[in-house]
Each structure stands twice: as structure tokens, then as C-alpha cells.
Write a structure and sequence with these properties.
The protein is built from 17 helices and 14 strands. The protein has helices at about 25-40, 55-65, 80-90, 105-110, 115-135, 150-160, 180-190, 210-220, 240-250, 255, 265-280, 300-305, 335-345, 350-365, 375-390, 430-440, 485-505, and strands at about 5-10, 45, 70-75, 95-100, 135-140, 165-170, 200-205, 225-230, 395-400, 410-415, 420-425, 450-455, 465-475, 475-485.
Amino acid sequence: MSEEKVVIFDTTLRDGEQSAGIGLTTQEKLEIAKQLERLGVDVIEAGFAASSPGDLEAVQTIAKEVREPIIASLARCYVDDVDKAWEGVQGAARPRIHVFISSSDIQIMNQLRKNPEEVLDISVASVERAKSYCDDVEFSPMDATRTDPEYLYKLLEAVIDAGATTVNIADTVGYTIPSEFSSRLEDIKSNVPNIDKAVLSVHCHNDLGLSVANSLAAVKSGARQVEGCINGLGERAGNASLEEIIMAIETRDDLFQVSTNIDTKQIYRTSRLVSDITGFPVQPNKAIVGANAFRHASGIHQDGVLKDRSTYEIIDPKAVGWPSNSLVLGKLSGRAGLRSRLEELGYHLEKEQLNEVFEEFKGLADRKREVTDQDLESLMSTQRRSADVPVTYGLDHVQVSTGDHGVPTATVSVKLPDGSNVTDAATGTGPVDAVYRAINRVVDVNNKLTEFRVDAVTEGIDAIGDVTIRIERNDDVFVGRGSDTDIIVASAKAYMNALNRAIASDSK
């Protein structure tokens, strides 16, 4: 393996959160950041500190508690943005300020309403100001792939002279194609005289479905930092999928002859965690982490894999942390067995946390003959949701009467903030609608349900159902998740989770 490294820059918590419908709490961002640290990413872009007090808090928290990776904050080329970015990352063991500004004519003229020389001066001033705070400064010319090459060379040379240690060539609108992008990077290396004083980075969007291909072409052409998101999250069609880039470099070392610091066995867990917290599912045919990534339906393929897995698998599923799916726990299992299995899955619980999860586990084991790794992941997800969001209203009881010859009717019992219980009932067009109407009679939180999705956590008739919903309230989006072997109960839990998030947001 070559000793030359490619820096893996994760922007799931910044660009990934810009996916429509994602809104993360500080604690959720911190949990993802800690998993990214276990994964081994080199840089975590923790947020855009100047965008909101909540984002500043999240950046500060991550900077304080996540110590191994570089912690970066994005900043526009404004004095206040740069100052706020430093306020966010100054507590990090390895801080970075990442400044950006539009560089293409179309964005300079139509959005910034400035001329190119003004943009160059602003860029230099912003890099210099960031440099006065910390040594590690990244500069991104936004929409670089549609920027006049001669102007781009001039801009990059100027910001490197001003102190930028990384220059990031952003394909902001996903416009370029691999051959074109390779040529652009080669030209930059040839025409920017001080380019050797900075790390050449790339940031690719997926509008044409080429973000990973473009990123890999860039690595082949000398880029030594690649930016992207777990599961390909991000603005519009998303960013380059980091897990795909990482495994392409790992699998095709003969071609790229570079390496990363990534612990690939943490990839699957990272993907699942991000999906769980954001409420964005991973498509079944997604490379590396999709449910079908290592499933073989064709008889010819099955025959080959049974004889030798390498006939049709270029990646060992264990290499990216895919679980075994073996059924190992049941109702007779104790705390020690549960703790051991959870630790194998990457969860390390304090005694009180273990006791809470154990009670949930025993209840599940009474309903299911055997408990799978996926079931445990679902339990931990439920535990996380209850820990992250203050439970103003609690769901105590759900009872539904439905069928094809009657009016669906639901009765719910809800625990109020003062500890008392209120029971109410309602009818609806279906059982879930009836449950939600009954809850609304007790919990007065005006909202609009915009998404309802049901996923099976495991296979079989006794599978846990996982429900994800999104509600809108006052132009804010709140994601709710709920899991149960009874899909109606899971739906009720998801709705209560979303309502409690909305209420918690009101109190800030």
C-alpha cells in the first residue's frame, strides 16, 4: 500500500444537513461526529457556525468533545462569518476555518453583484483574517468548474500566498464530467505556481450522478483531499458518497496507489447511524451499504459465490462491517449477554443505560422468539430518541378498532407534563389517521404531516416495524421515528417523537 494519503473530509453535518427535510439537534450531530471519529475521517466539517445559534452550539460542542479529527466550520468571505467560525472551532484540538466565495461569472454577476477583482480582494482578506486565528485555512472557489480558468488560477495563487493551506475545487452544481475534471486539475497544477504549498481538494455534487466518478478522477489526477457525505446526503441530488470513494480507493489500490486512514469495518455502522438519525433511508441497491449490496439472486451468481465468494464479490462484506445476522439472543438472555453483544455492535453503555435497554429488550424478547442484531440496533435507536428529545408528552396506551366494514377508531392514553394521564378517542380514514387524530385531541400542537414511511427492520412475520414521519410547523420540519412489532404502535410513537421535537424547539 502506498504511503501517500488522501485526506477524507466529511461534510455530513454541514452539507449533508442541507438535504431538504433534515434537521439535527446538537446531541444528534455529536453522536454522528463521534462515529465519524471512530470511522477515522481526517476532517469533520461540523457546521456553518454563522448560520444560526444552534449551529454555533453544535460546532462548539463537537470541537470540545471530538479530539482526533480536524474540526472545521464553514464561513462565507465575510468578517463576521470568519469570526464566528473561529468562535466555533477554537476549542478543537485541531481547528480549521473553511472560507468560500463564488468564483464563476454567472454567480459573481447574478448573485454577488460584484466584479471578479472585488471577489479576489475579498477572498484574500478573508483568508488572511482566518489565518490570524489558526494555521489551518481552507479556501473554496464556489462553482469552480464553471469558472474562467485564467481567473481561477489567479484566485488560487492569491489565496495560497495569503495563507490558505488547502484549496478546494468545488463542482458546486454537479456540472463537470470525469475527463473534463481531470483536465481542469492538471491545468491547475501546471498554471498555479505555488500550488505545491497547499493541499488540492475536491468537492463534488451529484446532479448528473457523477460525483463519485469525478472525485475518483480527481484523486487519479493528484487531488489529496476528497470531500463528501455519508450515504451521499447533501444539497439537491447530494454530495459524493464517501463510503463509495473510500472503498473504490481500497479495492483498486493497483490503480490509485494511495491510501486513507479509514477503518473500513466502521462503514456499515456509520451508514446505519446517519440513516437512523436523519430519517433518510439507504436505497436497497446502494453500493457498499445498501441492503442488496451483497445479495445474489441469480442462480449462476449464487453458484459462483458458494464455490468462491470472489467470483462475484469484489469486497468482503465483513471488510465494511456488515453484521452476521445470526440470531443469538432470546428471552432467557441476561444483562451480561446483552452487554457483550451490544459492545460487539459498537455500543458501550453505563449501568443505568444498560438497565433501561435491558427492560426494553426483555419486552421485545417476550414478543419475538429470537432477537437479531438489527432488532438491537432498533432498540438502541429508540433509546437514543428518548435521550435526545425531552419527553413533554408520553404515549402510555394505544388501542385501535379497524376492519373493512367499520369506521377505524383509536383510543390513546397520553401522559401529560404534570404526570397525569388523559385518555381520548377519535375516528379516522384508517387506523393510523385515527390514532393521530386522537393524539391531536390531547396534544395541541398545530402541524401538517408531510411524510409517512414504514420500513421492516428485520425479516419475518414478527419483524420490528420502523416508522419515519415528517411534520411541518411554522416553516420548520421535524422528523419523528418509532419502532415496534405493532406497526400502529410504532406509528403512534413516531408521531409523539415528532411532536415532542416541535415542542422542544418552541422552548429554545
